[in-house]
Amino acid sequence: MNNKNKFKEIAPLIIVVLLTALVVAAILLRDGEKNKSKILYGYFDTVTVITDYGGVSAEEFSDICLTVEEGLKYYHRLFDIYNEYSDTVNLCKINKLAGDGPIEIDAELFAFLEYCRDTYTLTRGEVNVCMGAVLSLWHEFRSDYSKGAPIPQTEQLSALYEHCNIDHMILDRANMTVELTDPEMSLDVGAVAKGYAAQKIVDKLKDKGISGVTLDVGGNICLVGEKPSGDGWITGIENPDKSSDQPHVMTFTASDTSVVTSGDYQRYVTVDGKRYHHIIDKDTLYPSSFFSSVSVVCRDSGLADALSTALFSMSYEDGLALVESLPEVQLAVWVTPSGEVLTAKDMEYYDE
C-alpha cells in the first residue's frame, strides 16, 4: 500500500483516537488533579497524550515529554513497515529483503522479534507478526473500497496465508540476524508494536524516578506509578456501541498498570451493511466476529496489547482459559455484539 492510501486509512483513525483520548482524559479529571498535558502527533500513526498529575515543574515535565517523544520516534522508525531510514535496518528493510538471506540487525530489534515469536506461542498463534501478506490485502481493501475495491475472497486469502508461517522467520542470536526464508512473506507488527514501545518508554520513565504520569498512546493507556495522593486513576472502558447514551461499559480505579482495548469500531469500512474491521481471525482470514471489543488491564503494556488482540479472535471460553493462566493479567473485559459484558479476574470495577 502506498503512503497516500495509507494516510487515507489512518486519517479518520487519528480523529477518532484524539476524541477517545479526550474522553479518557475527562474521566481522569474527575479527581481535579491534572497538572500539565501535551499532545504528540504522528508516531505509530496515532495521537499520544502525556499528562502529569504529580505537580512537577515545567522543566521536569519538558524532560518527561522529551523522553516519551524520543522513545516514540525511535520505535516508530524501527517498527515501520512502510518506510526505510538511512541510519537503521528496520522492518521495512527486512520485508524488502525477504528471501535474500540473513540480515544483521541491532540488539533492540532482535529482542523485539524474539518477543514477537514468544507472543505467538503464548497466544496460541492468534498474534502472528508474519501475517503481513494477508493483512496487506485487507489494508488495501479498506483504503480503496470507496473506489470499488472488491472484498478479498477466501481463495485469494488462503493463497496468501501460505506465506505467513512464523517458522520461516529465522532468528540467529549468535550472529544477531533475522531471515525471512519465504520471499513472499512480510512482517506486520500492528498487534504488538505500540504496546511494546509504550512499555519500553514507561520503563525508562520509571528508571528516572518518574511517577504520577499517564500516557495515552492511541488508546493504549499507561498509568506510570501512582498519584502523589496514593490514589489510583479512575479509568473507563469505552462502550463500542456509539449509538448508546452510556459512553463506558464500566469504570475502575487503577495505578501503575496499563489498559489496552481492541475493538471493531475504529478501523473499518461498511459494505452492504457488514462491517469489515482490521482485526483478522487466523482461522477464517476474515475480520473476527466474536466480540465488539476486548480490554485487558495488565502492568506490561506490550502483553496487554497482544492479549487484547488475541482474545478478540478467540471464543470467550478459550480466552478465559488463557487469561486465567496468566497471573500478570489484572482484569479482562469482553463486550459482545449484543452488548453483553463479560469479565475475568477479580479486580474491583464499577458498572456505568
Q: What this model shows, in words?
A:
With 352 residues, the chain is of the alpha+beta class. The protein has a domain at 93-180: ApbE-like superfamily (T-fold, Orthogonal Bundle). It has nine helices and 16 strands. The chain has helices at 3-28, 58-79, 91-96, 107-122, 132-144, 154-161, 193-207, 301-312, 316-324, and strands at 36-41, 47-52, 103-104, 169-172, 177-180, 213-217, 220-224, 233-238, 248-254, 257-263, 268-271, 274-277, 293-298, 329-335, 341-344, 350-351. The chain has an eight-stranded antiparallel sheet with strand order 1-2-6-7-10-13-14-15, sandwiched between helices. A hairpin with a 4-residue loop joins strand 4 and strand 5. Helix 1 (3-28) packs across helix 5 (132-144), helix 7 packs antiparallel against helix 8 (301-312) and helix 8 (301-312) runs antiparallel to helix 9 (316-324). The model is unreliable at 1-32 (pLDDT under 50).
Descriptive terms for the model:
22% strand, disordered N terminus, T-fold, globular, 352 residues, 3-stranded antiparallel β-sheet, 9 helices, 8-stranded antiparallel β-sheet, single chain, alpha+beta
Q: What is the helix tally?
A: 9
CATH topology title of the domain at 93-180? T-fold
Strand order of the largest sheet: 1-2-6-7-10-13-14-15
Order of helices and strands: HEEHHEHHHEEHEEEEEEEEHHEEE
Provide mean pLDDT, rounded: 88
Examine the secondary-structure arrangement and name the CATH architecture of the domain at 93-180: Orthogonal Bundle
CATH-level-4 superfamily name of the domain at 93-180: ApbE-like superfamily
Strand percentage: 15-25%
Q: Distance between termini?
A: 41 Å
Secondary-structure class: alpha+beta
Shape: globular
Main pleated-sheet profile:
8 strands, antiparallel
Provide the low-confidence segments as ranges: 1-32
Radius of gyration: 20 Å
Structure summary, number of beta strands: 16
State the CATH class of the domain at 93-180: Mainly Alpha
Helix content: 25-40%
